[in-house]
Design a protein that fits this description.
By secondary structure, the chain is mainly β. Helix content is 0%, strand content 31%. The protein has a single domain (2-215), classed as Immunoglobulin-like (Sandwich).
Length: 222
């Protein structure tokens, strides 16, 4: 765990403020943090038979405002599960944005907005409230360079296979990477016209680094 700069996501110290060995049950902590400060949780994922390189899953969470006894950080082994469905490239970065409240992209003034470096990726086609055969309940949005062609194309709409997976959606978004993550992604969430929230993610290469941004489900601005 690292404290990070609010305006860049860069670590403030060379040494983590806390570290834990993660056992089979996934539990970690406790740890004392500062209310209102920004933190990164870095999950070191060991090499596997199918992916023989250590990787890191970085979590950037909205600042805590009170004691929290259940911080849930979802991950998987490299190149397995959801990770196996997402293209990676040394010259591109990507992220997953999560909020445990439905993300609507087709409700006009009542829509949510999720900006990555100034581009709103919650379009009506990518995150509709209503879908054929039922209601859309997207709470997580993947953003990555779909064809590794260094091109953003939101006109593709919700990328397969996420269009068939409840709670998840995905958009074709290309963001160049840098080896040391020196050029951060600016991620802004506006909840149905109110409560703008802003987090920053270093743009490390997606081949070895996975990023998740975690927003609270309230509308209090940051």
């Amino acid at each position: 765990m690292w404290e990070v700069a609010a305006d860049s996501g860069q670590r403030l110290e060379q040494t983590p403020l806390a570290s834990f060995a993660i056992e089979a049950d996934g539990a970690f902590g406790p740890v004392e943090l500062l209310s209102g400060a920004n933190y990164e949780f870095a999950l070191l994922r060991p090499a596997t038979a199918t992916f023989p390189t250590e990787t890191v899953h970085h979590f950037y969470v909205e600042p805590f405002t009170h004691d929290d006894y259940f911080v849930r950080l979802l991950s998987s082994l490299p190149d397995q599960g959801i990770g196996a469905l997402i293209p990676v490239a040394v010259d591109a970065t990507g992220l997953l944005a999560i909020r445990n409240r439905e993300l609507w992209g087709d409700q006009g003034a009542e829509s949510d907005e999720l900006y990555i470096n100034g581009l709103n990726i919650l379009t009506p086609a990518i995150s509709p409230r209503a879908t054929t055969g039922g209601s859309g309940v997207n709470i997580a949005v993947f953003a990555y360079d779909d064809d590794t062609d260094k091109t953003t194309d939101l006109d593709k709409g919700e990328l397969a296979p996420f269009n068939a997976i409840t709670f998840l959606t995905a958009a074709d978004v290309y963001v160049p990477s840098s080896t040391d993550g020196r050029d951060p992604l600016e991620v802004i969430l506006i909840t149905r016209g109110a409560g703008e929230k802003r987090l920053y993610v270093p743009n490390r290469p997606s081949t070895l680094h996975r990023n998740t941004v975690v927003f609270r489900d309230d509308t209090d601005g940051m």
